[in-house]
Protein 1
Amino acid sequence: MLRGLDPLLSPDLLHMLAAMGHGDDLVIADANFPAESCARRLVRLDGVTATGALNAVLGLLPLDTFVDDPARVMGVVGDPEAVPPVVAEFQTIIDQVADAPAPIRAVDRFDFYDVARAAFGVVLTGETRLYGNIIVKKGVVAPSDGGAQ
């Protein structure tokens, strides 16, 4: 156990987050996501919601400020303008927790899978709400954030 960390941040997830570099993508996926076939690196958080995982991750991981879309979700098939409740909750978490809040951008399902296959890692949650998947791009940890001087 460590102090000051969200208990949802398992040792494997902490290792993955620490190993990521600026510009690396992290997928937080729902229970329906084909994580085993997509992931280069996989961490399981069974029984945890995707929104809970995102909240815990954004407490440590800065969003990339050098891109227009540091947070992407899978668009609803047949209705790309729809915003499922879980996606609205993702946006609320980003607005409240991220050090550099940004609007979420929806991408086509198959484009989402392509990005997921190239992502640094996938966090497979127990999320049961449909479209409970998000990709976040890691930003720079500045020296004033505890990095080396």
Protein 2
Amino acid sequence: MADCNKINKELRNSNVKNKGGLVMSNTTQALSRIEAILDDSSFVEIGAGVTARSTDFNIQEKKAPSDGVITGYGVINGNLVYVYSQDATVLNGSIGEMHAKKISALYDYAMKMGAPVIGLIDCAGLRLQEATDALEGFGTIYKKMSIASGVIPQITAVYGNCGGGLAILSSLSDFTFMEDSKAKLFVNSPNALDGNNESKLDSASAKFQAEAGVVDFTGDEETIANGVRQLVSMLPANNEEDAAVSATTDDLNRACPDMAAEIADPALALSDIADDNVFVEVKASYAKEMVTGFIQVDGITIGAVANRTALYDEEGEVAEKFEPVLTVKGAYKAENFVNFCNAFEIPVLTLTNVKGFEATVAAEKGIAIASAKLTYAFANADVPKVNVITGEAYGSAYVSMNSKSLGADLVYAWPTASIGMMDSQLAAKIMYADEIAAASDVAATVSEKAAEYAKLQSSVESAAARGYVDAVIDPENTRQYVAAAFEMLFSKREVRPDKKHGTV
């Protein structure tokens, strides 16, 4: 491979000496951020000689090398990617006409080649001196990103300011990383919100945005660079490429003896299932009762969705507890993730433990729509889908969680799982209300009727007899069953009705 650092250096020297006065970007923090993400010596800059062409407000008197954004391409673990990095030392990294055109041109390259785009944000916003030209350029970037959505992966990393319309740009991408000490992400700055100021509540902070579900990952610059590299390595380059495959020496038949104990926190269980115990959790700080992220099994990337009832801290103690219910935020989180996986042909695994819907006045305002979107996402997804029922699976909430009726290709259940309309105790009280009321020993009667109902309607054996469960498996054998299922489903194809898109 060519020494691209040497090429870039020669280009800089050539452009600086050029009679036309071209000035290439200096070796700045913007460039070092690119180099931290890409393989060594792989970055090649494109459009180095571009600079602002506006003369309004005497802006031409200010140096604008590369118009404040470095654009180019390189590789991550040998995989082609396109990257742009805003340079806050040039007009505060503000977006002007030519700045926007460079990013738009990068998207044209990426779409032609079918490769991901990584945007590194550190920007004061739109360049006021260029007004409508800058605004037009901004809209063009929005359009390019919208067209690229579902075709190539788009990743944004926020290192500095990402305000106003830039916040929309970051949310148009598939995944957003945010530096956790200096970066600011906002549509309206904290001090512009009625009754608020930054010292009271910093709504532009990484912590706030991560807990709001806007940001997927947070950390320092080194953590971000490593995270972007890991994520790109797990994702396909585009929507037509086969699943991302990595070499692994992990035993497919490896037992997971701690699986049953870990299932309350599926992040632990999924790590146990995964090759080399690597689980990349997405939106970990948002809707913690729903876990989403990526694992690899036999080297194949799989998207995972799971219900959580406990969150453990680093000492292994329970830090937070959750009811096994479907929440508004949890449903939206899972729906968005499943849609991404389906767009890029990434198989989906679910670990299901849900007994109903969140029952609060606030939840009632949105749970129907949120659950409908989750239901549609699973039903609409035509990628390989496997469901493992690990605990309770009751009512419509269970149906929405990748059930057989929604199109799950294979459904497994642990022996301790319970599948049915509702909890057997509650069902018994409803079905045998008169008999229970007349009983001399109410508790004994309820227990007897509940046990009868559970055996006939809520046991895994009952569900298996009806074909709703394909096999009852021991928890410690979950990895090998999951691996075998996705291996069998690798070449899955489905024919769906021809339509432009759904409306849910």
Protein 3
Amino acid sequence: MNTPTSTASLLTRDSFIELGARERARALLDAGTFRELAGPFDGLQSPWLARQGIVPQSDDGVIVAKGQIDGQPVVVLAIEGAFQGGSLGEVGGAKLAGALELAAEDNRRGVPTRAVLLLETGGVRLQEANLGLAAIADIHAAIVDLRRYQPVVGVIAGQVGCFGGMSIAAGLCTSLVMTQEGRLGLNGPAVIEQEAGIAEYDSRDRPFIWSFTGGAQRVATGFADVYVADDCAALRDAVASELRAPAGATPRSERCREALAALQDYDAGVQPTPAEARRLFVRFHRESDA
């Protein structure tokens, strides 16, 4: 597990989180290799948002970039968290699924294309509910197909986090890289508070939220793999390392029995603490590292 560098180096960092999705993709790829597909000038925007008084975006908030990392072919798929909270609808979801499917086809033709997912998303776009859900299901299937051939690395850097159906996509990735600012969970804090009440989950209590769903906790409990500082060079090094990792480990998504066994000791009538969550999942975490 990597750890962020000391505070003494803060002034020398080149923040990854402060970049837009397109710039994040460019920052990860080898210099001069960035090539965008289905970009904004192709006009692939949602046909549904304008009908509801929402201004669409000409790339539907999803960037598809082909290039190289360490000289090897990669497709980087970046979700723009600043557009509709990174939510996915018909068009953006199709771009993600289609790119992953083409990467798998590359591998079947002997081109070892790998994939990196930059996940800043609340999940399905409510304005396109069923269409978005269908697209996310296609993304899940495409990740499982591609990871048979090459690593699929997910990155959750911040500030939106990764929730909803796309948190399942994160769980299907070969490995996950997270920063301290990133968050990962099936349901977002506001949704949990709405459904279970503020006594169960106060969405305004930021230290509490990050202590359960933030990058440090997710790596410590085995639900993510690499904890890295908010720095472009550090993120790039971490992603490149994960892409070089040999295949063969059992995917996290196929180890549900171990995760369920870890939950057997949990008393649902007692409010858990971050330390208790780490204790419960220490076995799952150690077996993930094995």
